[in-house]
Hints:
Layout: H1 5-15, H2 23-30, E1 35-44, E2 48-54, H3 55-60, E3 69-73, E4 86-96, H4 101-118, H5 124-127, H6 134-139, E5 142-158, E6 161-167, E7 180-184, H7 186-193, E8 205-211, H8 218-222, E9 229-233, E10 241-245, H9 252-272, E11 278-284, E12 308-312, E13 324-326, H10 337-347, H11 354-361, H12 374-397, E14 414-418, H13 421-431, E15 436-438, E16 443-447, H14 451-464, H15 469-479, H16 482-492, E17 494-495, E18 498-499, H17 521-530, E19 534-538, H18 544-567, E20 574-579, H19 588-591, H20 597-604, E21 610-616, H21 624-628, E22 632-635, H22 641-647, H23 657-662, E23 668-672, E24 680-684, H24 689-698
Parallel strand pairs: 10-21, 10-22, 11-19, 11-20, 12-13, 12-19, 20-21
Antiparallel strand pairs: 1-2, 1-7, 2-5, 3-4, 3-7, 4-5, 5-6, 8-9, 8-24, 14-16, 15-16, 17-18, 22-23, 23-24
Helix pairs in contact: 9-24, 11-16, 12-16, 13-15, 18-20
Amino acid sequence: MIFTAMHLGAAMGDLIPNVGAGTLLESLLISDERAVRIGAIQALDYDRAIVITHDRWKSDTGGIPQYSFLLATAREVGADGGDDDEVLLLRVEGTAPLSLEKDLLGVREEALRDALSRHDSPSPSVVLDLDMDPFTKNRISFTGLNCRILGTFYEQIENGQLSLHFGHDVDNFYATSTYRVFKPVGDGLAEIASYLKPSDDPVERVRIGAVRYSSTRRRAIASGQNNAAVKVNVYDFIGNKTGMFGMTRMGKSNTMKTVVSRIFVVSENRRSEGGSPVGQLIFDPQGEYANPNTQDGKELAAIGEKHVVIYKFGGTGESTAANVRPLGFNFFDPAQIDAVKGVISTALVDASSDYVKSFVQADFSGTAVEGETAQDGKKREIHAARGRLLLYGALRKADFSVPQKDADGRYPWRAWISMRKELVAKLESDLGAGHVISGKYGSVGVERDSLTQVIDWIVERSEAQDLSGAAAEGLASIVDGDAWKSALPIYTQRSGNRMVSGYTKLKGLKGFHAPTSRSDYRNDIYRELKNGRIVIMDLHLGPEKVIRSLSENLAASLMDKQTEVFTSGKTPPDIQIVIEEAHNLFSSDQYKDDLDVWIRLAKEASKLKLGMIYATQEVTGVAHQVLANTKNWVVAHLNNTREVNELARFYDFKAFGDSIISHEDKGYVRLKTMSSPFIVPVHIDKYGAGLVNEAREAAGEPPLQIEQVS
């Protein structure tokens, strides 16, 4: 059979498909304004490709640094028809030799040898800078790029909508000569860097930074390619674990603030639409979230007093800022006694002592128990109040400040207990008037300055047994109560016939004591979080031991409250927790302790709708189980191969290992989010005036006039 040229063209058209009818692929990725042609495919496999390019093409497109995204396609741009529409996404990982490179190097070497023999001067400037003829110079200007194939972009119709999809592999390939290779720029690069996998989950795109391929940015800036936006789905961070890894001052805190402010905007938008807001709890060991600093130019607290609450040691609701609250308990407030008892129990570390076990089991709140009679409930309440009196005395002996006013701030503080009038009369007879004040229903209020005197008198009379009649019966009623007996060794430092530490153990807890606090701060914080506030625990002024205990106590309380909601069949509120120095909390050794509060948080957070952002300098210091369940990864500079090798076990961070160690640029990270199918090198936007005012606008607040720090 004889083929004419027309027949041959038709046959060849069948053999070599004219692929490329896809509209989204062209409009979003490889249109002229979104991508620049830089070469072709020299060799192709299912996971790697070698791209051939030229020095002039690289220069014209602003250079091709390592880790650049490239696009390869067999489609004819602007053409119709074809059997499929696909664009391969490549990442440049190094250079590659070309087929004729050895021959071309031979040509260059021969030219150099010839120049050396033809010139009298053998200096490098004479021999090495020889002028080649244009033909030879062009031939040796071709270079090869070793690229990894990250996957395939393609189009698909779902629910009647045409959308861009991404697959992590290659399902077909053509002859290498068919492919064109492009460097995405501008909106095309932003489209790739911000690509999110199609999902039925909620999506809210927010900018987090710009694409940054390298430490050296001269060409990117000169060519206007340094601000291709990277947008993430902020819902990836809500309710999931996010790990931020990097050395100190590499931008972890800046990234955290950016994420927190972005989540706040989404939370306020949800609130305005009738949805539930998102609360955020930040453990701030350096005070940089609550206070202005030279790194950021503005603190998170600048979002507004109505929206950001700061708890700090020594803070009072009467301070200049209305949103500053005391961090701790009022140890002398009956309403906070359960929290106080919990903190004291941790201080009495000698758990083998009987008096400690007795204290832990004692009831100092007097809260009614379901099923008990009214008479039993009243008896429980009376004995609890008497036990509190003894505990207050122990606190006073441990140098705790007794409040001037009661919890309502209306009356002088007194310790109220039930006491028979005959016993009151005997007390005033022995000590004089002014130590107690009579109240209703047989109660008396012990004055703040008379605590130890009244208690000492009761203890002495009990030991001497020198009272009689109704006074003796009243005394016995006081000292026979379980709460009184449990607190007595702490006050007297005597348990049976031996001396014990008693109240001296309480002195280390003075940092927890906030005399002006009117409620359990843990309940207040949970309420603020449910209302969508940002709660900052400013811990930079507190003693380390107190900070650790207080943080654990708060985290445990938060988990208990979320668990209570979850087990009741209701949906817990969305709450985010931000933790610094996570390697101290999630270490492999500690992770074996299922009772450790931070381990419980790491294991159970997702089902309780507790999102967690943790920052650390040590990838190896975080238990593998935590890393394996981390959905979002933000990786800045790490300074040793041990940490990078551990990181290389996750996703394809191994490819970035050398740059993670060598590139010490603040804000330069490798980002992998739950919705993104690949790692994106990003320069995180600097937190400052813009984000502050964006958050304020979402909350209905006027913008601040902020002088941005350069």
